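PROTEIN DATA CARD
Card holder: Putative membrane protein
Chain length: 463
Origin: Sinobaca qinghaiensis
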Amino acid sequence: MNIQRFMPRPIRKLLSLSSHQLKYELRSNLWFICVIYALIGIGIAGIAYWIDISSQYGESAPAFFSAGYSQTSTIVSSLIAGSITLNAFTLNSILVVLTNFSGQFTPRMLVTFVADKRTQHVLGMFNLVFVFILMAFFLIDANVETYVAFPTLTIIFMFLGLATFIYFLNHAVNWMQVPNLTLNMKNESQERILATLVQDLEPYRTKEPNTSVDELPETDKMYIAADGAGFVQIIDYRRMVSYAEDHNLVVKLEKRIGDFVLEGIPVVSYWKKDNTPVDENALRRFIFLGSKKTEVQDIEFGINKLKEIAIKSIGNDDPNTASNAIYQLTDLLLSISKITRFTPYLTDTNNDLRVIIEDESFDYYLYAALAHISIYAKSDPIITNDVLEALALLTESVAGENHDMCWNFAAMIARGYISPFVFEHNEKRFYASLRSISETTDKREEYRSLEEELRARLTPDNE
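Structure generated from the sequence above:
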């Protein structure tokens, strides 16, 4: 009997996640770390209660560390108000600043800041201090004359809260500097997306399964429709491959991670190899729909965050920020090309084809990252040159099988640029980047033809 069938969908979603996916879900929510720190605060308050009230060690403690009931009550009641004020001031100030930054760059910046482990530990520490002092306020007893743990720990925690406040301000200021902002977003995408894919998807990928797709006739294909609307957030590849192996199926995913589906739209199809009964609801449960896109398995989602920063920076006449985002995007694309094997076939331990995912390739992510930026920069020689220089660096680093894609994309960007060059320096950078890409990809003849075409159109003397 499968108990998970009777569990709420959010619980089933968490239970199906790998360790990397579960870590992402927990880190994306402040409540988890705050609950942990609150429990620590309650535990410390319990220890202090045992020291001061159950064992009454305060009577034998040095006078410097001990305090009477009235003094302890005054300390605790005063500092609990200070703790609340400190927390409220900090969070209010940071939220105002982050809201402004979100409007300027990307609304996903707030989520990224909240998911930062330093941010979460700082907020957790604030929670610990407040919970401990609040517990102390209710636990101190007028019948006990001398206290040592409660007053001492209350003062120590308040100083710790003040130090945390200063650290938090410094952390927030550093985090919101544009180079750090784009670097943090890129690192987050590399950590969460690529690490998740390596563990959950890549072990099953192969380019040459035992079964050919040509052996699967379309007439025998059975479709399973979505039972609700939403974005495809997570696909449980491990259990899907296992289920297909147990029931001798070949399953095809009709939608990719991040796609939006409506109720009744096919999301999964399958081929039966024998008469083993198939529970279509089981296959449907391996796909989790939600109200928003997430970064757990969606490579494109991580790319879009940096792309949004670059595009908004172009609109705000901030070329330095746009350039920084472009180079971080290039680094992310390089990581994707190194880790991901671009094949749609997932197999079991016997290399038998079990799951077919939506076909993808390196050029798909290359276009997703830089095509939109190049459209916004088609009249801006500075940003266009940054895109071409970043592409030249990427071309030198990726495997040879991706060189044709890089050259074709570079030629497309160059042809899309429409503004004649006013400054010779910009023109030299433009053609130098194209020349570098052509030499790396062995497209020298194509480059000479492209250069003649572009000079005829972009040189001011020819206007």
